[in-house]
Amino acid sequence: MKKLSMSLILLGMTGLGYGQYSSSEFNNPIFDGFDLPVTNVEYLNEVQDHVTPRYAKFLEYIAPDWDVSKSSKFDGRKDQLFNVTFKSDRGYIVASYDYRGEVVLAREHFRNMALPNQLLIVIGKKYPGWVVDKTSYSLEYNRGIETAKTYKVKLLKGRLFKRLEVDATGNIMG
């Protein structure tokens, strides 16, 4: 009986040990199948950073991967941009593509996103006792020009409320 108990304990510990195995390779099935064209890597590098909301990142991976040449409405004219809207339950991206399929312009808007911790700390220090009620995240991308990322935040304190605009670096603008 003692040998059986020890065997079961060792077997259980071995199983737990394998359950704790961690791999250095990140594998996220949501993003499987996205083969980004080299031409749109600039877009991703510009719009994504450590403060980009997770829901925005999902659509930001879809937009540069989308092949405009497969659309029946795309005629490939060099003098005209081709606009596509990508929607989710929390927001959208309107991307404008040139004749080569490169993202030239993009406008993004997402609502009710969790604020990054660094922004919560900045807001908490400036407005102690206030609670975040609603948020939105907006981005304006124009190839070759600095990308503007803005969070709009509604704060509550009892019956009082404030509306703020905060950029991605934590500067409060309103």
Topology (SSEs and partners):
Elements: H1 2-19, H2 41-47, H3 54-65, E1 82-88, E2 91-97, E3 103-111, H4 117-126, E4 131-142, E5 145-157, E6 160-167
Antiparallel strand pairs: 1-2, 2-3, 3-4, 4-5, 5-6
Structure description:
With 174 residues, the chain is an alpha+beta fold. It has one domain (36-167). Helices cover 27% and strands 32% of the residues. The protein is built from 4 helices and 6 strands, in the order H-H-H-E-E-E-H-E-E-E. The protein has helices at 2-19, 41-47, 54-65, 117-126; strands at residues 82-88, 91-97, 103-111, 131-142, 145-157, 160-167. A 6-stranded antiparallel sheet has the order 1-2-3-4-5-6, covered by helices on one side. The chain is elongated, with a radius of gyration of 23 Å. The N and C termini lie far apart (72 Å). Mean pLDDT is 82; it is low at 16-28.
Concise description?
It contains 4 helices and 6 strands. With 174 residues, it is an alpha+beta fold.
List keywords for this structure.
27% helix, 174 residues, elongated, alpha+beta, six-stranded antiparallel beta sheet, single chain
Spatial arrangement of strands, main beta sheet: 1-2-3-4-5-6
Distance between the termini: 72 Å
Structural class: alpha+beta
Biggest sheet overview: 6 strands, antiparallel
**Average pLDDT metric:** 82
Q: Outline, from the CA principal axes? A: elongated
Amount of beta strand: 25-35%
Determine Rg (CA atoms, Å).
Answer: 23 Å
Q: How many helical stretches?
A: 4
Q: How many independent structural domains?
A: 1
